Amino acid sequence: MTAEIKTGEKMIVFMVNGKEYAISVTQVKSIEKWQKPTRVPGVEPYICGVINLRGVVTPVIDLRKRLNLPEYEITDETRIIIIAYRDTEIGWIVDEANDVITVHESEIESAPEGIQKDTDVSIEQIVKQENRLLNIIDANAVLDKESSQSAVPDQA
After folding, report:
1. What pTM was computed for the model?
2. 3-state secondary structure (DSSP) of residue 148
3. Which long-range contacts (CB under 8 A, 24 or more apart) does 51-57 make?
4. Could you read off the pLDDT of 31-72 as tens digits, one per residue?
5. Is the CB of residue 35 less than 8 Å from the CB of residue 50?
6. What does the alpha-carbon distance between residue 40 and residue 111 come to, in Å, rounded to a whole number?
7. Is 25 helix (H, G, I), strand (E, B) or coil?
8. CA 84, 24, 122, 15 torsion: positive or negative?
9. What's the pLDDT tens digit per position in 90-141?
């Protein structure tokens, strides 16, 4: 289930495959320019490898692959969003990070049934602002699936 969005909450807006997504700033540690991850053998195909981020080895997930979307060429706009997850940080490769918005309760709606059918990452809420529709994505929806467990070792 997607984390509950509160009135006045700030969200980071980013693009993947021409669609806008939003994630709560409370889940985001930083937004970094592209750096090529070092491959790690034996991980899920959507795990690109690891990067050295200010002395911390950080796993990186290609969000396009995780959402079963076509591959994309890396550009100057490509970013790695660093997500706080459990006791660690995970990077998400996105096409670009556009904006920071403030969301109000009146702008939040439940997603229509069957949205994102081609992936096991469900989008449960949508933000409607002016002429924009933003899919709210929760880090846990991307990272807490059985197939993601190899991306993040248990911190027990």
Report:
1. 0.81
2. helix
3. 51/80, 51/91, 53/82, 53/89, 53/91, 56/89
4. 999 999 999 999 988 899 999 999 999 999 999 988 888 988
5. no
6. 35
7. helix
8. negative
9. 999 999 998 999 998 889 888 777 665 445 566 778 889 888 888 888 777 7
Sign of torsion over alpha carbons 54, 155, 25, 145? positive
Domains and CATH numbers, the chain: 9-148 (2.40.50.180)
How many C-beta neighbours within 10 Å does residue 58 have? 20
Please name every residue paired with 14 in a beta bridge, in sequence order, or none if there are none.
21, 97
Please give the distance of CA 151 from its chain centroid, rounded to a whole number: 14
Amino acid at 47: I
φ, ψ for residue 102, nearest 5 deg: -110, 130
